[in-house]
Amino acid sequence: MSKTIRLTAAQAMVRYIAAQQNSDGERFIEGCWAIFGHGNVAGIGEALHAMKGDFPTWRGHNEQTMAHAAIAYAKQSGRRKAMAVTSSIGPGAANMVTAAALAHVNRLPVLLIPGDVFADRGPDPVLQQVEDWTDGTVTVNDAFKPVTRYFDRITRPEQLLTALPRAFRVMTDPAECGPVCLAFCQDVQAEAYDYPESFFEPKVWRQRRIRPDEAELSEVAEMIRAAKHPVIVAGGGVHYAGATEALKTFVEAHNIPVTETQAGKSALPWDHALNLGPIGVTGGAAANTVCAEADLVIGVGTRFQDFTTGSWGLFANPERKLVSLNVAAYDAMKHGAAPLMSDALIGLKELGAALGDHSAPGKTEGLKADWFGKVDPLTDAPEDSNQLPTDMQVIGAVQRQATAETVVMCAAGTMPGELHKLWKAGKPGSYHMEYGFSCMGYEIAGAMGIKMSQPERDVICFTGDGTYMMANSEMATAAMMGIPFTVVITDNRGYGCINRLQMGCGGAEFNNLLDHSIGGENSNIDFAKHAEAMGATSVKVGSIAELEEALAKRFEAKGPYVVVIDTDPYPSTEHGGTWWDVGVPEVSERDEVNTARANYEAKKKMQRVD
């Protein structure tokens, strides 16, 4: 008879989580973010306290942004490590739903443990309980179901014996990887059970490498041999598979140019001869020119988001065929692609072997030089220091102060598009962009998560004033924990990116820039003082030259370091890019909208849905 140990369900959960390892022999769940309230303070809180000497607990200031930090940690770790996040019931749990969606879209592991109602329903309804009048089993945590890869509600202590292994299987499976939600009834957390001691023995979860099917491999190899103008679209899967060197070897051996999605950027160094740079709506002319002419598009670890494909209007060659090398069958089969379902590292190696000495005939000379010749001047410091700088000039200043260990990160607004086009990423992992969900408020918490994942890196976060106002509370957490990273706040007094989109669709400037809002007094928020009040070292600068001087001092700060600069909300990089499908009104009193609608209809005809 196996030995048992009597523990509460919460104690058992924490002990099990702390014993799970990745294939490097490191703990897979590094620790737990927690905001306690009723629903998790008595059960989970006591269990985490008992393990605090071995399993860390961190206190954040918002459930959503705690989860953002955990997600960024997992992303920067290449999905080899993750974090848990626990909340109370009701609004605390609901706050995490947005973060769950972000992790789901980006295929990133995070273990979410919201408190839930009483399983025995004795005090029903409890404080903050959402009551469904037609289904007594529904709680607010059911909102996690469509935005998690695995959901379970723990209503008995012994259910952990099956629920926890299932949760870790999902988080460590390259094909199914994503967020897990274990909604934990608060009375059950405190109930005891005799668990087998063997349940808590260390276990290694290996991220399996799926090998390609021989028939799929042969078909794709023949398609590449037959192609006159093939191109590779490198996505985030290249990074998660540790396949950056394999990609470099493959393209050099077979002379196939590479384009990079937001998630794939830095898969190859920016100056590699075959790296044509960013693709799609926020892409460059070099990559998009080759993609428009390509007769074979080879996706590697990409889910072909609309920003990548120009809403499926970019790949214009009528003879174009599509290949998708992807570990997930769902992505490998998209849009009629010839699938090569495989881990990116193994798939590229075996595809390279199948191709032998084949070299693609395509030529791309001059495209990169022409592209950089157009955009490099945009990042130069302005000659007139009295003019408001552009976002492109801010990027140039940061680029000039960056080191080989710099990780630049962002998520929403103007900067993702400008960084995708203009940032010159060096080694893999030096560019961290959350652009699957493009969630405002990810930036500051995400920067903290990146630094926790790789303390040796120089983390620089770009954020606008709008997204800073949406979620800045983890600045105080980083200051409290002494986690150093740099935040560059570009203050254009509103939502400049969406204002430009509004104008591009023929709309009048309305409700985006604060200067144009109803009752619109000019924005006069002192972001430097605000960040300082939360414990950051901060400075407001008045020019690009002052920005560079301030950035040079960032390593002197003990915690977060914030530099604020006012910018012009209107200019953006006009070069490169391609169409994006945004519905323009069919009927309007504005001539500008009618003109935009006519242009929209013309572009819509180029869209391919096959």
UniProtKB/TrEMBL annotation:
Q: Does the keyword Hydrolase feature in the UniProt annotation?
A: yes
All residue ranges annotated as the Thiamine pyrophosphate enzyme N-terminal TPP-binding domain in the record: 46-121
| InterPro entries, A to Z | DHS-like_NAD/FAD-binding_dom, Myo_inos_IolD, THDP-binding, Thiamin_PyroP_enz_cen_dom, Thiamin_PyroP_enz_TPP-bd_dom, TPP_enz, TPP_enzyme_TPP-bd
Give all residue intervals belonging to the Thiamine pyrophosphate enzyme central domain.
218-350
Q: Could you tell me which Pfam families the record lists for this protein?
A: TPP_enzyme_C, TPP_enzyme_M, TPP_enzyme_N
Recite the UniProt keywords alphabetically. Hydrolase, Thiamine pyrophosphate
Any GO BP? inositol catabolic process
Q: Which residues form the Thiamine pyrophosphate enzyme TPP-binding domain?
A: 412-565
Question: What protein does this entry describe?
Answer: 3D-(3,5/4)-trihydroxycyclohexane-1,2-dione hydrolase
Give the species: Marinovum algicola
